[in-house]
Every structure is written in C-alpha cells, then in structure tokens.
Design brief:
single chain, mainly alpha, 5 helices
Length: 92
Amino acid sequence: MAQGKLRLAQKACKEILRRNPGDFDALHLSGVLALRSGDGRSAMTLFDRAVKAQPMDAVVWSNRGSALQSLGHLEDAVASYETALALQPGFV
C-alpha cells in the first residue's frame, strides 16, 4: 500500500514539474522520494534545483546533506548540514 502511494506522489510531482519545472515543493518532494528510494544521485539533482529556487530553506539544505551522505560525500554533507543550521538561528 505505501509503495503505491509513493508512486502516486512521484507521478504527481513529475506532472507538476512538467508544467512548472521550477516548482520548489515538487522539486523538494521529488528529491525526498528519490532519496527514500535509494537514488541519491537523482535526489541531489532535485535538491540542487530546489536550493536554487529557494536558497533560504533550511529543510532542503538538510535533505541535500542526507543525499550527499548517502553518496559518501561526507565533507560536502557536513557543509550542507551547517548551511541548514545557519538558516535556523536558535535551533542549536
């Protein structure tokens, strides 16, 4: 059941991005879905596009860090996590 919902979400995001390639929410959610599916490379591409659309969004920077970590790019992952934290003053 959950797998069907994931596919439905992926399909919806794909359609939104077909109509509006710069839609932040669809880019970000597509990245999360790609990362959850184990496709770190696609997730990175999507998160990078989302960061360009909304560079001040801490959550996308954090998810970008997770994608980098999944790809073994640990120094870059730390930098992405640090950016996320810097965008959330008072979080730490």
